[in-house]
Design goal:
The protein is about 40% helix and about 25% strand. It is of the alpha/beta class. The chain is globular.
Length: about 290
């Protein structure tokens, strides 16, 4: 059994598609199929069920994938720790940002001012399908507070309704969601945190939101709001500064609309002292954000 076989199996298992895995690995599809078949023969068990042109992990494959992930995590930990012990290379921290992206420039600037040698690698995506396993930390949103040993809650914030200043309800001090069931909504794409929040709270009030614009970009969503193309759920703190002469932000009446900003990490992954220091900085930063607003 060779590492390249395990790497190829991992790619095929996580993508559930031989062709896509082969493209990602820059090898031919027949070569990948042959190597996976050889791995199955060596182990003595089939690892995939074939469904048309797609593949799906069976129970054997799920068992192997769990161990393969641990193997590559351990190898990556060894590489990172050896590099730290034997080089004077500047510390590197990787982030996957799925929520609160508007705050990212301020976070990086503030930290870099006191830690000028640190390098950052940042991936920005709100979709659940994007893996955050290759990053030191992931920042995401949730309807529930953090639970477990590999995550913590950074912030609890209210969700407001953004309305055009010319809207019939713009003069109110709060809004009942049931009054908005016929309104056009602007939202982030399905699977992204704010989209899940939009669906959840509307469903609590007995209706499906009429989403007329979807975007994978929070900045695009904010621009659409300024063009008065609909209404939207807006986080109060992490999206602050949105309200102006053209937009009103109103709290929701008779329903507690909140979300939690969560920091996650892989407890099996080696985190350098610099990385752990950045974790503490993030906790302090978001704690201060809640106090100053």
């Amino acid at each position: 059994m060779e590492l390249y076989q395990l790497e190829q199996f991992k790619a095929a298992a996580e993508l559930s598609h031989i062709t896509k895995a082969a493209q990602m690995l820059s090898i031919s599809q027949p070569a990948l199929s042959k190597n996976i078949h050889a791995l199955e023969k060596e182990l003595g068990y089939p690892l995939f069920d074939h469904i048309g042109k797609n593949i799906r992990l069976n129970r054997n494959g799920e068992i192997l994938l769990r161990h393969v992930r641990e193997i590559f995590c351990s190898l990556d930990n060894a590489r990172r720790e050896l590099e730290e012990a034997n080089t004077n290379k500047a510390p590197s921290i990787s982030l996957c940002v799925k929520a609160a992206s508007k705050l990212l420039p301020e976070i990086l600037q503030t930290y870099s001012q006191s830690h000028p040698g640190v390098r950052f690698s940042v991936s920005q995506s709100g979709t659940a399908s994007v893996s955050s396993a290759e990053h030191d930390f992931t920042i995401e949103s949730s309807l529930s507070p953090a639970s477990g040993t590999d995550c913590c809650s950074l912030l609890r914030e209210n969700i407001l309704i953004a309305l055009p200043s010319t809207h019939r309800l713009a003069g109110e001090t709060s809004v009942d969601l049931s009054e908005l069931k016929e309104e056009p909504f602007i939202s982030l794409q399905k699977g992204m945190g704010l989209s899940n929040i939009t669906d959840y709270y509307c469903h609590l009030c007995g209706f499906v939101p009429n989403v007329v614009f979807e975007s994978d970009s929070p900045s695009t969503l904010r621009s659409l709001l300024h063009l008065n193309l609909g209404i939207a759920f807006i986080p109060e703190l992490t999206w602050s500064g949105l309200e102006d002469d053209s937009i009103r932000l109103l709290p929701v009446r008779n329903l507690e609309c909140i979300r939690h900003i969560i920091l996650k990490w892989d407890s099996r992954r080696y985190l350098s002292p610099s990385t752990l220091e950045f974790k503490e900085f993030l906790i302090r930063y978001f704690s201060g954000l809640g106090k100053r607003n």
